[in-house]
């Protein structure tokens, strides 16, 4: 049952509005006096799917006092606690992976605070009620991760401390400005807000492709990764796990229904230009949840793939035709076609700057047509299937079988189809 707090029941205390840069310096936690301002809840909607039953009081204020040192020490001990005493803030909770991450933490008994927009999902298709329904078992906090002040006010309104922040945020479009706004700035907001309310561990859902950054969203993610690592280096109370998965099932399922309807399987070059070790939402969510308590995942960058061998597009297509009991029918597209289109778009952007996202989408498509989602071996400079760790048990074959039976419902790509 959902419970919405009426706006006049609460008074929230907001931190001073600091500039972003000063907040994110290694000293920022000392600069924030959490209880110096107050404002009414009405401007910061908070909606909880169940009454909060946190076992620990929020630590206020967070300052550089001796008291803070004791609190910080206490908080770093969260790994010794039972899951029900650990408060996990999940941002990006309504995404393809975020939803499963919330479910996994709830199933493992953690106290989950899921931050969501009032209209969530692809093109904001889900209402508040639908979001609450989707994130059952979590305390849903409707807030704006792109606005630090509002995020902090919302978290403060919960009146609990945060132990761990898990970010599954991602630009829904992959556009240049949106990538920087979400994959970098909003993600950074969640670190700043989380730290401000006591978080001692940050789990970041990143992507294996940031190893070879040629796209804006990869640069945005890498910048945040670097700042997170630096932050942890300078603040010995903070730890991190950076999860870099290979391809998700949804990114490989786009042709299943077309092929079922008799169309050929389309691939670039000979279909062997790239490979990946696809991982399911459930398996990845489980791996992410492991990052909270597993000591071997602390302060680690963790490339991760699903079970089994790496698969090229050719092998994925063959698998699909085998499942359908049909002779393979491939359409091989020369990769040069994409290079031509990208060259043309890059030229047009100089005349029509508004086309910059279209040009970026072309580059994203080109990237995934030719680059493997596998670990880039620093010794050889090549992608290595052997060195890409595997996790979980769900296979792409089972996924294809399911899509052939039930269709792609729930596996939709983002607003810009084809985006990883
Ligand atoms: N697809 C792949 O094969 C693949 C492979 C490896 C890594 N990855 C990485 O995995 C990550 C997550 O992917 P995903 O498919 O789970 O992402 P997704 O389904 O697009 O979810 C994105 C999440 O971010 C939130 N978000 C986006 N823009 C927002 C905004 N302006 N304000 C507030 N929230 C916003 C969304 O909220 P709303 O629901 O409100 O929009 C949603 O919760 C990405 O970083 C991606 O690069 C993907």
TrEMBL record:
Q: Which organism is it from?
A: Turnera subulata
Q: Which reaction does it catalyse?
A: protochlorophyllide a + NADP(+) = 3,8-divinyl protochlorophyllide a + NADPH + H(+)
Q: Upper lineage ranks?
A: Eukaryota, Viridiplantae, Streptophyta, Embryophyta, Tracheophyta
The protein's Enzyme Commission number: 1.3.1.75
| Gene Ontology CC annotations of this record | chloroplast
* One Pfam family this sequence matches: NAD_binding_10
Primary localization:
plastid
State the name under which the record lists this protein.
Answer: Divinyl chlorophyllide a 8-vinyl-reductase, chloroplastic
The record's listing under SUPFAM superfamilies reads: NAD(P)-binding Rossmann-fold domains
Give compartment(s): Plastid, Chloroplast
Q: Which superkingdom does the taxonomy of this entry point to?
A: Eukaryota
């Amino acid at each position: 049952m959902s419970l919405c707090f009426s706006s006049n029941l609460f008074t929230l205390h907001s931190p001073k509005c600091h500039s972003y840069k000063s907040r994110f310096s290694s000293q920022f936690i000392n600069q924030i006096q959490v209880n110096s301002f107050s404002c009414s809840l009405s401007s910061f909607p908070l909606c909880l799917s169940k009454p909060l039953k946190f076992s620990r009081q929020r630590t206020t204020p967070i300052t550089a006092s001796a008291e803070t040192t004791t609190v910080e020490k206490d908080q770093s001990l969260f790994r010794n606690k039972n899951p029900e005493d650990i408060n996990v803030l999940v941002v990006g909770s309504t995404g393809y992976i975020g939803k499963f991450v919330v479910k996994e933490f709830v199933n493992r008994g953690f106290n989950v605070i899921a931050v969501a927009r009032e209209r969530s999902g692809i093109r904001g298709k889900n209402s508040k009620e639908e979001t609450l329904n989707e994130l059952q078992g979590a305390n849903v906090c409707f807030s704006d991760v792109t606005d630090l002040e509002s995020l902090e006010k919302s978290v403060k309104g919960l009146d609990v401390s945060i132990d761990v922040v898990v970010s599954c945020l991602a630009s829904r479009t992959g556009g240049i400005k949106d990538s920087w706004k979400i994959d970098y700035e909003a993600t950074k907001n969640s670190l700043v807000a989380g730290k401000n309310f006591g978080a001692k561990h940050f789990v970041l859902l990143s992507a294996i492709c940031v190893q070879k950054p040629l796209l804006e969203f990869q640069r945005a993610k890498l910048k945040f990764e670097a700042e997170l690592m630096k932050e942890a280096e300078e603040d010995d109370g903070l730890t991190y796990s950076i999860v870099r998965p290979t391809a998700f099932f949804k990114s490989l399922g786009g042709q299943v229904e077309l092929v079922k309807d008799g169309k050929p399987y389309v691939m670039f070059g000979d279909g062997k230009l790239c490979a990946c070790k696809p991982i399911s939402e459930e398996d990845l969510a489980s791996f992410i949840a492991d990052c909270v308590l597993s000591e071997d995942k602390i302060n680690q960058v963790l490339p991760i793939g699903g079970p089994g061998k790496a698969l090229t597009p050719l092998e994925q297509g063959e698998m699909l035709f085998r499942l359908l009991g049909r002779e393979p029918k491939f359409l091989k597209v020369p990769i040069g076609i994409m290079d031509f289109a990208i060259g043309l778009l890059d030229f047009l952007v100089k005349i029509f700057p508004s086309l910059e996202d279209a040009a970026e989408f072309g580059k994203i498509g080109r990237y995934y047509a030719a680059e493997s989602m596998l670990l880039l071996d620093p010794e050889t400079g090549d992608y290595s299937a052997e060195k890409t760790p595997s996790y979980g048990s769900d296979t792409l074959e089972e996924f294809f079988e399911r899509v052939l039976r039930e269709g792609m419902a729930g596996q939709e790509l983002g607003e810009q189809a084809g985006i990883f």
